[in-house]
Each structure stands twice: as structure tokens, then as C-alpha cells.
């Protein structure tokens, strides 16, 4: 967020006619909600619907539509009764953590990781247990890592595709981890918010492999609805009532208008796939151009819209490097320190969900800057 503020300030201070700041720090789509979904929301508003509280777990029609999505996309049986609509994935994580874990419980996760995992757990009195991962495991955890933990953690978070590395677990790897967790009594939380945004690697859901797993998803990324604050959980039977009681007290319900818009978004596949195709072109441009520019240590970009770059050959201070890159090259990217506490100073995260022209320009601008 500090990088966003700095990039905004630099952009505001540029003289007229200056080259624009290339925004590669923000982890959200540059596009808005699908047009037909917004039109559905406008019709509902024009009809004078009161848009009051819904049930804590959301509109029955949206929950049923999410369940049908699992059948259509994965061939998985997810009853609507196991779906909880949430205030984004960000609102889903505290509900899941509070219901599944007690203070002092250890929850393992790969490092690098999405920072709120650890920050939310810590704020709730739980203990993040970091598993240092690197390119040899595609920045994903393995069963061997889990077996080596003593004592065994109470939980495990996996993300596929993951933020910041953009890598994925294969369906076989996810299945093996899900079944290991179920057999060992380790609560699996599968973050699947970047599903729909993968480039060649098949997507799988933990809901296909384990009845005890918690699945987190969101309308923010593939559906381009970040500001609408709408997501969902697929819950195991034993956590339904605990999560419902927590939601009733903490948020009452997700925004009614956002739920209506989200339900309509499922029918906007052509527009959403066009967005994904643009991300794919940006990804291809950067994978071709960044190595030639000097950023030649990139994680496998299986999905999401990020490239995780090891800049250890250029700098061991990614915070200072990113600040110089913004000030001197006009390119904003995110230092790795929040994603990996021990090794993040030699990593940057580039986001490629922006405009195609900007992504095409970035490698040449970076190459020129590094040659100064």
C-alpha cells in the first residue's frame, strides 16, 4: 500500500507530457465488473428493491449458483447449504480462522505468502508456521515439508494460483495434500481466489478431495469485482454453524447489491475471458521481455497475474530498489519484504493486469534504466 501511495504521488507530480508511471504494483484487475452484471444491479436499484440484510450466509439463489459453478467447472458436488457468501475473501479468512482454530494453534503456509494470512492469524492469537519454499518446489509446500514438522500444525493454508509467485499445485499435488491433511487431522484452507486465471495448468479445488477442507474464493479477481467486496467459503459440515454465528455477529451479511451483481456475473463469461486473454498477452510480453532487460530469475507464472522476480543479482534491498525504480524509471512494483520476511529483500512482485501498452513498454524502460 505504501508503494501505491508513492506511485500516486509521483504520477500527480509529473509535468504535462511526461511518460506515465507504469503501474505494476497493484494486485487487482484494471477492468471493472462485467457490463451485464452491472446492468443487473442497475435494474434492481431502479426497481426500488430495499437492499436490506440478507441471511448471514447470503442469498439462497447466489449460494445455489455457486454450488452449480463447482459442478460445472470441477465436477464437484457442493450443496448450496455448505456455501457461505462473505464480504470478500478478506472477510472470509477471519471467519474461517476463528471457527477452525484456537489461540495458540499453529497454521502452516508456504513462504512467500499473501501477508494477511499471517497478520490475521497473529491478530487472533494463532501462530503462523512458515515453510520456506523456492523454485525447486515452485514456491509451493510439499508433503515432505509437512511430515518434517514436529509438532504437527493444526492447520495448513495453500494457495493455487498463489500470490505473489503465481505458481500452482498440480491437481495431483493438491489431492495428495488434501488427503494427507484429512488423514492427519490438519485443517486445510485452500485459497482459490485466482481460479479462472491460469495459463495451461489445470485448476482443481480442494472441495473435490476433502470434506474437511475449507475453500476460500472471491469475485474480486477473475470476475473483476474487487470493490464490490463479495466472496465465498465452501465449509465442512462441522463448521457451518460456528461460521454462521460468527458472521451474524461480525458482519450480519455481505452487501445485498453486490450479491445480486455477483450472481449475474456468472453469465458474463465472454467478457471475463476477454479480460483473461489480455492478461495472457501481458504475461507473454513480460516473460519475453523481462529476462532480456535483466530480470531473468522469474518464478513459473502458472496463474494469477503476477511475476515473482529474484533480483539478488541486482540488489539485496528490494525496498530501496523499488523506490529507485519508481523515481528514476517511472515503474511501480512491490518489494518482496511483506511476502517473505527472511528473503523478501531480494525479490520483487510485478503485476501484469494493467493496460497492454504499459506492459509492452515496461521491459524496454527497465532495460534502459538498468544500463544507466
Round the Cα radius of gyration to an integer and report it: 21 Å
Treating each run of at least 4 consecutive H or I residues as one helix, how many helices?
12
- The chain-level structural class is alpha/beta
User: How confident overall, as mean pLDDT?
Assistant: 97
Q: Give the N-to-C terminal Cα separation.
A: 28 Å
Sheet having the most strands = 7 strands, mixed
What order do the strands of the largest sheet run in, or round the barrel if closed? Answer: 2-8-7-6-5-3-4
Could you state the oligomeric state of the chains shown? Answer: single chain
Helix content bin: 40-55%
Description:
The chain is an alpha/beta fold. Helix content is 41%, strand content 14%. It has helices at residues 2-13, 35-46, 60-74, 88-100, 115-123, 143-147, 171-184, 240-250, 256-265, 269-293, 318-329, 356-370, and strands at 22-23, 83-86, 106-111, 127-132, 155-159, 187-191, 214-218, 231-234, 306-310, 331-332, 334-335, 347-351.
Give the SSE map.
Blueprint: H1 2-13, E1 22-23, H2 35-46, H3 60-74, E2 83-86, H4 88-100, E3 106-111, H5 115-123, E4 127-132, H6 143-147, E5 155-159, H7 171-184, E6 187-191, E7 214-218, E8 231-234, H8 240-250, H9 256-265, H10 269-293, E9 306-310, H11 318-329, E10 331-332, E11 334-335, E12 347-351, H12 356-370
Helix pairs in contact: 1-11, 2-9, 3-9, 4-5, 4-8, 10-12
Keywords:
single chain; 372 residues; alpha/beta; 7-stranded mixed β-sheet; 3-stranded antiparallel β-sheet; 12 helices; 14% strand; globular
Amino acid at each position: 500500500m505504501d508503494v501505491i501511495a508513492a506511485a500516486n504521488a509521483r504520477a500527480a507530480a509529473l509535468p504535462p507530457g511526461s511518460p506515465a508511471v507504469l503501474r505494476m504494483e497493484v494486485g487487482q484487475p484494471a477492468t471493472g465488473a462485467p457490463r451485464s452484471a452491472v446492468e443487473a444491479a442497475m435494474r434492481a436499484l431502479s426497481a426500488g428493491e430495499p437492499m436490506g440484510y440478507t441471511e448471514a450466509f447470503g442469498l439462497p439463489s447466489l449460494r445455489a449458483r455457486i454450488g452449480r459453478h463447482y459442478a460445472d467447472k470441477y465436477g464437484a458436488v457442493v450443496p448450496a447449504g455448505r456455501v457461505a457468501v462473505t464480504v470478500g475473501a478478506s472477510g472470509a479468512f477471519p471467519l474461517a480462522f476463528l471457527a477452525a482454530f484456537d489461540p495458540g494453534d499453529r497454521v502452516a503456509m508456504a513462504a512467500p505468502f499473501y501477508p494477511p494470512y499471517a497478520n490475521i492469524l497473529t491478530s487472533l492469537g494463532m501462530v503462523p508456521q512458515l515453510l520456506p519454499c523456492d523454485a525447486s518446489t515452485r514456491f509451493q509446500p510439499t508433503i515432505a515439508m509437512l511430515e518434517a514438522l514436529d509438532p504437527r500444525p493444526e492447520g495448513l493454508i495453500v494457495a493455487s494460483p498463489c500470490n505473489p509467485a503465481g505458481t500452482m499445485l498440480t491437481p495431483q499435488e493438491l489431492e495428495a495434500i488434501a488427503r494427507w491433511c484429512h488423514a492427519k487431522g490438519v485443517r486445510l484452507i485452500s485459497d482459490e481466489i485466482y481460479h479462472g486465471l491460469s495459463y495451461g495448468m489445470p485448476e482443481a479445488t480442494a472441495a473435490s478431495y476433502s470434506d474437511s477442507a475449507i475453500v476460500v474464493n472471491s469475485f474480486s479477481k477473475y470476475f473483476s469485482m474487487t470493490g464490490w467486496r463479495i466472496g465465498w467459503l465452501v465449509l465442512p459440515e462441522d463448521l457451518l454453524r460456528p461460521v454462521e454465528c460468527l458472521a451474524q455477529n461480525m458482519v450480519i451479511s455481505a452487501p445485498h447489491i453486490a450479491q445480486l451483481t455477483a450472481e449475474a456475473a456468472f453469465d458474463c463469461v465472454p467478457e471475463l475471458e476477454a479480460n483473461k486473454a489480455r492478461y495472457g498477452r501481458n504475461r507473454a510480453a513480460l516473460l519475453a521481455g523481462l529476462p532480456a532487460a535483466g530480470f531473468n530469475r522469474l518464478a513459473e507464472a502458472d496463474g494469477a497475474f503476477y511475476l515473482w522476480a529474484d533480483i539478488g543479482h541486482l540488489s539485496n534491498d528490494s525496498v530501496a530498489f523499488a523506490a529507485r525504480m519508481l523515481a528514476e524509471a517511472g515503474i511501480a512494483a512491490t518489494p518482496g519484504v511483506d511476502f517473505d520476511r527472511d528473503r523478501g529483500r531480494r525479490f520483487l512482485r510485478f503485476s501484469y493486469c494493467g493496460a497492454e501498452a504499459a506492459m509492452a513498454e515496461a521491459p524496454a524502460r527497465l532495460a534502459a534504466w538498468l544500463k544507466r
